[in-house]
C-alpha cells in the first residue's frame, strides 16, 4: 500500500511538473524532435561571424534585451516596417548591429527545418552563443517562443543610460526581474562601447551649472573630458576600458571605484541591495557571475513570450508572414 501511495504521489508530481512546463510553454530542447540540429546550426553562424567581427557580441546581447523589454521576447525588434515605423528605428535601437546574423541563421535553419524554428528563439540562441564566442558564460537556452506580428516605434520605452536607481528597479520589476537581475544584467556592460553624447551631461553640465557628476571619480572624469569635448557626437568609449572585448568581471570593480561609464552604472551604488550585489562580485572576484548571468538571461528570456498557438513562425525574420 505504501509503495502504491508513493507511486501515486510521484505520478502527481510529474503531472504538476508537466503542467508547469506547458503553462510556461518554454523548455530546454523544445526542438529536440522537430529540429535537433538547431543549436549547432545557429552556433556555427555566430562563431563564423564573431571571428570576423568580435565587436558584434555587445550589440547582439543588447538586441535580445531590447527585444524582450518591448512587447516581450517575440522578435518584434527584428521586423522592418514602411516609413521606418518599426522598433528598430527608435533612437535606442539605432546602434544595434548584427541583424544579418539573425537572417543567416534563420536561412540556414529554413533549409534543414522549414517553418519550425521561430526568429525569437533564434535571437535567444544567438545572444548566448555570442557570449560564448567571447569566452563568456554559457547557459541552457529555453526555446518554444513564437514570433509576434507587431513592431511599433512608439512602443519603445527602454531603460536608459541616464536613469536613476529608482527608475531602473521599477522598470526591471515591471518585467518580473529583481534587483539582483538588474545588477547582473548590467554586468553585460563589460563588453562593448558607448559614445560621447551619452556622457556630455555627466562631464560638463550635470545640474545645469557647468559641473560634472559628483558620483563619477574625478580622476576618471578628467580622462574622459580629454576624449569627449562638449560638442563631440562621434567618439566611441570603451565601456570596460582595457577589456571591452572580453566578457569578464572587471565591470563591477570599475563601478565600485565610481568609474562606471553611464549614470545607470553609477546608480547601482545608490540602493542597498544593488550596491551589496556589486560589492559581492568584487569581493568574490566574480566567482558566481557567469552562473548568475545565465540565470538572469533565462529569466529575461521568459518575458511576455508567445507560445502554443499564439503568434506565428516567421519565414523570414524581417517580416511577418
From TrEMBL:
Residues 1-23 form the signal peptide. The active site is at 66 (proton acceptor). GO terms for cellular component: vacuole. GO terms for biological process: hydrogen peroxide catabolic process; response to oxidative stress. It is found in: Vacuole. Pfam families: peroxidase. Substrate binds at residue 159. The keyword Cell cycle does not apply. One of its GO terms (molecular function) is lactoperoxidase activity. Heme b binds at residue 189. Its cofactor is heme b; Ca(2+). The record marks 62 as: Transition state stabilizer. Ca(2+) 1 binds at residues 67, 70, 72, 74, 76, 87. InterPro entries: Haem_peroxidase, Peroxidase_pln, Peroxidases_AS, Peroxidases_heam-ligand_BS, Secretory_peroxidase. It catalyses: 2 a phenolic donor + H2O2 = 2 a phenolic radical donor + 2 H2O. It comes from the Eukaryota. Its EC number is 1.11.1.7. Removal of H(2)O(2), oxidation of toxic reductants, biosynthesis and degradation of lignin, suberization, auxin catabolism, response to environmental stresses such as wounding, pathogen attack and oxidative stress. These functions might be dependent on each isozyme/isoform in each plant tissue. Belongs to the peroxidase family. Ascorbate peroxidase subfamily. This is peroxidase. It comes from Arabidopsis thaliana x Arabidopsis arenosa.
Amino acid at each position: 500500500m505504501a509503495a502504491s501511495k508513493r507511486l501515486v504521489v510521484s505520478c502527481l508530481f510529474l503531472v504538476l511538473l508537466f503542467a508547469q512546463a506547458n503553462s510556461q510553454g518554454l523548455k530546454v530542447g523544445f526542438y529536440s524532435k522537430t529540429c535537433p540540429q538547431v543549436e549547432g546550426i545557429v552556433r556555427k553562424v555566430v562563431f563564423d561571424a564573431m571571428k570576423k567581427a568580435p565587436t558584434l557580441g555587445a550589440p547582439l546581447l543588447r538586441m535580445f534585451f531590447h527585444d524582450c523589454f518591448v512587447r516581450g521576447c517575440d522578435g518584434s525588434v527584428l521586423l522592418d516596417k514602411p516609413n521606418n515605423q518599426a522598433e528598430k528605428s527608435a533612437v535606442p535601437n539605432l546602434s544595434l548591429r548584427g541583424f544579418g546574423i539573425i537572417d543567416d541563421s534563420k536561412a540556414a535553419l529554413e533549409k534543414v527545418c522549414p517553418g519550425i524554428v521561430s526568429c525569437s528563439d533564434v535571437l535567444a540562441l544567438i545572444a548566448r552563443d555570442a557570449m560564448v564566442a567571447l569566452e563568456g558564460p554559457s547557459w541552457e537556452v529555453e526555446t518554444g517562443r513564437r514570433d509576434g506580428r507587431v513592431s511599433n516605434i512608439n512602443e519603445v520605452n527602454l531603460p536608459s543610460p541616464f536613469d536613476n536607481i529608482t527608475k531602473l528597479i521599477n522598470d526591471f520589476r515591471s518585467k518580473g526581474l529583481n534587483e539582483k537581475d538588474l545588477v547582473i544584467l548590467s554586468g553585460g556592460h563589460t563588453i562593448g562601447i558607448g559614445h560621447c553624447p551619452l556622457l556630455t551631461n555627466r562631464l560638463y553640465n550635470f545640474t545645469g551649472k557647468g559641473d560634472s557628476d559628483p558620483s563619477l571619480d574625478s580622476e576618471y572624469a578628467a580622462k574622459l573630458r580629454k576624449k569627449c569635448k562638449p560638442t563631440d557626437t562621434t567618439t566611441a568609449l570603451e565601456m570596460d576600458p582595457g577589456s571591452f572585448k572580453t566578457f569578464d568581471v572587471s565591470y563591477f570593480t570599475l563601478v565600485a571605484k565610481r568609474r562606471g561609464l553611464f549614470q545607470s552604472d553609477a546608480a547601482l551604488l545608490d540602493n542597498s541591495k544593488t550596491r551589496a550585489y556589486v560589492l559581492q562580485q568584487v569581493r568574490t572576484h566574480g566567482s558566481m557571475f557567469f552562473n548568475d548571468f545565465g540565470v538572469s538571461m533565462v529569466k529575461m528570456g521568459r518575458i511576455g513570450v508567445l507560445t502554443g498557438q499564439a503568434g506565428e513562425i516567421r519565414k523570414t525574420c524581417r517580416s511577418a508572414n
